[in-house]
From TrEMBL, chain A:
GO cellular component: endoplasmic reticulum; Golgi apparatus; plasma membrane
Protein name: ALA-interacting subunit
Residues annotated as signal peptide: none
Polar residues bias: start-end ranges: 143-154
Transmembrane residue ranges: 49-71, 307-329
Keywords: Membrane, Transmembrane, Transmembrane helix
From TrEMBL, chain B:
Domain named P-type ATPase C-terminal: residues: 885-1125
EC number(s) per entry: 7.6.2.1
Family membership noted in the UniProt record: Belongs to the cation transport ATPase (P-type) (TC 3.A.3) family. Type IV subfamily.
Keyword Translocase applies: yes
Sequence positions that bind ATP: 403-405, 522, 563, 586, 623, 703-705, 833, 839, 862-863
Protein name per UniProt: Phospholipid-transporting ATPase
Xref: Pfam families: Cation_ATPase, PhoLip_ATPase_C, PhoLip_ATPase_N
Residues annotated as domain P-type ATPase N-terminal: 16-81
Active site: 403 (4-aspartylphosphate intermediate)
Catalytic activity: ATP + H2O + phospholipidSide 1 = ADP + phosphate + phospholipidSide 2
Amino acid sequence: MNSGTPSSSAAGAGSADSTAPRRNSKRPKYSRFTQQELPACKPILTPKWVIGTFLLVSVIFIPIGVVSLFASRDVVEIVDRYETDCIPEALRNDKVGFIQSDRSKTCQRTLRVPKNMKQPIYVYYQLDNFYQNHRRYVKSRSDQQLRNNGSLQDTGPCKPEDNTAGGPIVPCGLIAWSLFNDTYGFTRNNQQLNVSKRDISWKSDREHKFGKNVFPRNFQNGTLRGGATLKPNVSLSEQEDLIVWMRTAALPTFRKLYGKIEVDLQRDDFINVTLENNYNTYSFSGKKKLVLSTTSWLGGKNDFVGIAYLTVGGLCFFLALVFLLIYLIKPRQLGDPSYLSWNRNPSGH
Amino acid sequence: MKLDDNTTGHDNPRLIHINDPKKTCDHSQFSGNEIRTSKYTLLNFLPKNLFIQFHRVAYLYFLAIAALNQLPPLAVFGRTVSLFPLLFVLTVTAVKDGYEDWRRHRSDRNENNREALVLQSDGFHPKRWKMIQAGEVLKISSDETIPCDMVLLGTSDPSGIAYIQTMNLDGESNLKTRYARQETNKLFLEGTMISGIITCEQPNRNIYEFMANMELNGHFLPLSQSNIILRGCQLKNTEWAVGVVVYAGQDTKAMLNSAMSPSKRSRLETYMNRETFWLSVFLLIMCLVVGLGMGLWLNRHKSQLDTLPYYRKIYFQKGKDGKKYKYYGIPMETFFSFLSSIIVFQIMIPISLYITMELVRLGQSYFMIGDQHMYDSLSNSRFQCRSLNINEDLGQIRYILSDKTGTLTENKMEFKKASIWGKSYGDSKAGSREIDAGVEEAMGSGRKWKLKSEITPDPELIKLSYKDLHGEERIAAYDFFLTLAACNTVIPILTGSPSSISGSLLSDGQISIDYQGESPDEQALVAAASAYGYTLFERTSGHIVIDANGEKLRLDVLGLHEFDSVRKRMSVVIRFPNGSVKVLVKGADTSMFSILKKDLPCDDRMRHVTQVHLNDYSSEGLRTLVVASRDFNGELLAEWQQMYEDACTSLTDRVVKLRQAAALIECNLTLLGATAIEDKLQEGVPEAIESLRQAGIKVWVLTGDKQETAISVGLSCRLLTADMHQIIINGNSEHECRKLLCDAKAKYHVNYASSFDDITNLKRKTEHNFLEMTSQTKSSNMSQQITGEEDRPTFGPLALIIDGNSLVYILEKDLEYELFNLATLCKVVLCCRVAPLQKAGIVDMIKSRTDDLTLAIGDGANDVSMIQMADVGVGICGQEGRQAVMASDFAMGQFRFLKRLLLVHGHWNYQRLGYLILYNFYRNAVFVLMLFWYILCTAFSTTSALTDWSSVFYSVIYTSVPTVVVGILDKDLSHKTLLKYPKLYAAGHRQESYNMSLFWITMLDTLWQSLVLFYVPLFTYRESTIDIWSMGSLWTIAVVILVNVHLAMDIQRWVFVAHAAIWGSIVVTYGCMVVLDSIPVFPNYGTIYHLVKSPVYWISILLIMVIGLLPRFIFKVCRQIFWPSDIQIAREAEILRKRRPFFGSNADQDSS
């Protein structure tokens, strides 16, 4: 009984409204968008789709896996770990002492070529346990300074390798300071094998990131030498070892390109390496390896991709079979209302 | 401003000197009429806006993270980069706020610069609104908007009537009458200047009340709500009106009412916060691992730290013992490492999710508002979303508490039956047509008007009403109809020239009458009286004119006691032209029978017969009123008049005094008869209720009607069915209620002494029963069997009917618990005769006893408390004003839209938002975990392989759009299916879209995917020349593609927008990376150009996608094969049915 409740008030449908011909109707305009009726594709997982998907994956993955595996197997790789062997046996108790002394660090290594290697043969050095991705290290560079002659003073992020008494260091920072300085010389049958150092870095780095008119200054002048020195009269854009080194590695174990040997090597060739073992990895017990490797479309030797692809492809093929069997043995009619929860378990408890 | 300002009103009344603004404003500082709805000015915008924005926890989190990053040892990101997310949200919000405020400024300026005629020394002159002050006298012309709250002094109408439309204030389109006091109106028409003092309350926001008096030439005139016109209303049908400003500017009731209602928080969001807690635990664990790892690593390499090329803690330039470089000792380094990992992992806590959710809800509301199926053409009202926080709660409602009048019914009253002098009329429907002619004849030529509403009168009653005025029965009928026509507050509006109504059957010279009133019941009664020949023609505060069978009667109104909820009746004192005075009373039967005359045996007989009729009527679902009258003698009249005058002019306790005056005359009444009005059910109500109940929602009806009416309406809307056992509880004392409850429980074997577990168990059982029995696919046979199995006697469904009196005892005492147990066992609960606060009490009971969500729906002011109390409040924009709508979270035109709102939109919103939250958790966690695994490979040094910008863009640009699009547009089932199978709604009850186990499964999946993301590139590029930026670039694109494909796998409905958003995001990501890698200053310069040339890059991305998503896909397929959900089956049925003719075709259109 609401008749005349004091706070309520009412209207017979306003007389003006009913007679007026929909002058200002608020009826929502019809469009398929506003009514949420846009044409749509509504996928459901029918048996065909499920089995088809698994088959499709296996059909794509198995060939890729096979091809990658073959590509990886074609790559010939020679790896020589030398950081311990290149220290005279008597001095191996104090490796750090040895590497910091002024003794001759030349070292001879002999490598056997296991298979024919087509040129170009890439020469890498590999460092283990060297955290080039450490935050203190990664940040310790000044890209402004590398690029631009005018930004010599831009050494903000480079601490603690930013300045010497003689002014700012170019290139500054820990990365440049710790530039790798082992050198390798190769001979085959007493014939010198030329190692090309051209084009071992990214073109974009050479052309845009490292300035053509930026020259090293005050580099490795400090009390503690970290690594290689740079030729003072060569612009940074031509110091390819530095450019390669400055592309810091993603993982603590990494390879860097040292150079390219542009002749083919035959099977059972013996290669003598004359090695200057200068770089100090002993203080953090890092390994050093010399790697000679051919390359394929996939890159270096790595079976992981091929095996992973084959495994996934095989698994998907297997799953396709399993689901095929399931659908054959225990089919469920799609959209069958008898599977609805209120039809399925009538007792309810 | 609060309502209780009323109480301070008489301690400190507001004095207004009419036409003397200076004096008025001298005494106290009344605000001018300038209004300011804008929040900011140009000067304070920045600080104030920032201040308001930082009230949100999310922004504080951003700020704290950004501040942490500014500390030198922690600078993980570049300074600008780290500020970007904060600045981004701040700017976006500030621009939005600024724009809104600018619009408010503009509308304020327009409003303030409007002009009104103000009385100055030499007549009325225009003046800007903002210059108007309290105490000034204003003249308003027809169709003008009223600039401030004014007391009417005079109008163009000699009787002082002014009609106003209050559309802007409360949304009602009917005209309301306001009166100028006769005394002032007379003075005005004579052209005399009025000077007096108005004493009124302090400003308050109650638009339906005003108490004041006016001192005029030494007399005190009472002023009430009917004498005031409020800002925002429009003057209609009145040439001009003059009034004095009492409240101006911010003091006006319109301005005081513009506050927003408090916001609610959705259930899903509460759960989400619980899971956010888990995420913060994960975050803490990861940061601890990084911090401790750093500590241990430093400890192990302590001796080498000086020289380690990638650490180097000392400057060597200044000698061997040089300054330390960013090294603060192992404990501090550990701590800093912990803090900086918080910065790196910050998006683990999905703060942006709150902003995303707001956007998504906004989009969902857009579609709900735009739904044509929820547009009511009768009231021309769309669906309204007044609250943007609880869209998804609509998908989980368990209890609907509904008002009856105006919600289930139309609240368009139709006079159906009458009992006059012990005889019931209006039963016969046959033959009305034939007698029509006779009726017309009987009416004679007296009838010259046309009513807006058409009623088919009972011919017998017509005959009676046109007989000569002889005999008790005839006189009773005369008084009866006179009461119907006079005892009300309805205003007749005569629309003049009828010749303009083309095609009208009526001849020239006839008048069309439209009755405008605040109560639909009264309108119906007046219209009925008119149909029987007693037409109300004119009403002023002093007299009314009634055409009784062609004879014009001018009746002086001596006093009018309006309806109130305590007396439950209304009375009017009229003086006939011949000087006799009568009290005409109408009211609810309970309040009327006690005040009837009980002298004669025939009174008893009459009362008995009428009671029988009343019971009949209310069992048919009709609303009844009892009509009575009484002749007045002079002595009593004088006494009453004295009291009435007193009460009317009193500023305090007026209501009580009026009630006392009313009690004086409302006694010893002669019973005339009773009326029965039909309140028609709204269209589609029974079907809607049926569907909602099938959906597992319990519908409780709370009504102010009496028990019989409530039951009959319950029957007609199929809430109650014949086979139900009705438990009726209507005790008059606590003891009686307790007994009734116990009896009912004993009878229906409800063991209320059992532990709560048992009861919930029982509850579950009965719920299941109920599902069974309403299931269409099930035979009743089966359900019988099931109830048999449960070892319970078969009673059939139960219905609980309880009245307001009992509720008073039950809700206050410990019986509440028992009532609740009983009520949850019942299929239907009907509460009748409940007061507004009791409605809220019932909602509160349900909320406190269960975790289930409640929805309250109502249309009147009496539902406001219930609407605000419930988890979701729905208002019906109906006949009873706008208060319910103003207090509601959602508003709509018809009850039946509720079905669509819950079953369709509620379901969609719930599914969408549930998925959205899980997906956002996943999206952020997979990214953070990927960073985490990498940090373990960098000697715990919080290096990120990704560029700073990519890290920041990841959640802002790379992956944000598709989640929003899917959250707004995805839908699992079409609305047709959802409406056809209401039981699908139970998915929301079972929390299928979002629950703890889903969260943990998602987290496991996240863990797997992050491991794949990290280890596939790691193994692929093991012992290679890969540099950190190439690796980061690969990870960036891999994670973006992965989360987008993950989303794509779960999309149920691919529209072009979804395609654009998902594939577009991947393209945009590539675009951003190309741009970032083209800036030579960045160390990552050129990376992407180099990478895309390498096949390994593409192969590893493909590998990541497939391995990462394989478990999820297998899980999905297995679940669909072995444990299909209801939604899944319905979806298959829906799609395959359409697709069958061209099976296998992918393109399927949602044709509806």
